[in-house]
């Protein structure tokens, strides 16, 4: 297969199906694809037939695949066979440093912690003979799983034909640029990375503390030692990623998504867990320590024990006689016992049930009438790896062209709506409204719920009972996407109230 025939739907290596073209530049195209064997999204680079550095890219990808640091993008496959060249790597979801800096610099120590993680990962790569050479805010990601990922190791440089006689120093300076961006919200590099340029003082980049108030002195010094390659506070310049990592070693690290490691309480189990219920004995509470080492009483022996046994037998017989007399006396005088009123158990709460729509379509009544209708069904196909998305716009307000755009579902008949779960993209900033009505007409659809600054999975719940045949997910603001703005919906699930 020639690379000139690559298009959405193309399958590579009989398992990777290309789905969405994400970016294209200078003969290299990045796709979001689906690994059909493992049913997971992956990132795939493909290359035009005349791309001049295919061999270098494939070699770099294969070398990068040998690294095991979880903070580096994992490469799954790389090939150049029969006119087809491609690199397959993990699909990383989350917010890049560029995304995090949209509203200005982040908390200084949080930003420094992200860069510290990248520095440690890059130090491991350099120890294995691999470099990055293209460290930008878009390549450092805080993932949706609460970890740090550095994208593009070795592969970016091969694609862009970047070289350096001092790669360790170049990557140390790159880490300094990332740290500067995190602390100030400005970019001290020559290339346009989506951030405003760093201000200059007499032709020299201003230090972070000159740009932003509240930057700790030690982080200002580390930034200058890496970025400007200058000694600060009696410390020498930082010339390798390992030195940057060591300088940032004391910065508190970002907290990952909490994982509950405590075992479930045994008294809540209705049955023993597999393999754990056999041979397990619950220990009784232990006695206070001062009693644990007392000598046990000596057993009674000989005549003394026989006398004690006789006394015990007589006492038991007396107790039985008294008990029998008491029971007989009270048999005829048993008071009537009245059962206390028992509160009637409440009816179990009805669990909402998912209702599958008959169809879905892109809805653009204020524009040309339709918005990506050919992929609308991907938002209701039950596969979280597929998506519908809007066109890309120049502004979050849809470039000022219209008030909104969305995805409309036809339920086939009027149904009561309990809530609608919408899986959005990972970039924050979307404003979505839930509109319901009996006609696929904007004037007939009433807004019943709204979420602002949304990302990930959001649940839109009407404030009162709502019924309708058409359900509209309506974007009034779009999140950033590759330098522009685009709304994305991976999956929509409509819930109707269940019967108790």
Automatic annotation (TrEMBL):
Domain Protein kinase: 16-301
UniProt keyword Metal-binding, yes or no: no
Keywords: Kinase, Membrane, Receptor, Serine/threonine-protein kinase, Transferase, Transmembrane, Transmembrane helix
Region (Disordered): 253-274, 328-354
MF GO annotations: ATP binding; protein serine/threonine kinase activity
InterPro entries attached to this UniProt entry: Galactose-bd-like_sf (IPR008979), Kinase-like_dom_sf (IPR011009), Prot_kinase_dom (IPR000719)
SUPFAM superfamilies found in the cross-reference section: Galactose-binding domain-like, Protein kinase-like (PK-like)
The keyword Phosphoprotein is assigned to this record: no
Bilayer-crossing regions: 307-327
Residue stretches of biased makeup (Low complexity): 253-265
Name listed for the protein in its UniProt record: Serine/threonine protein kinase
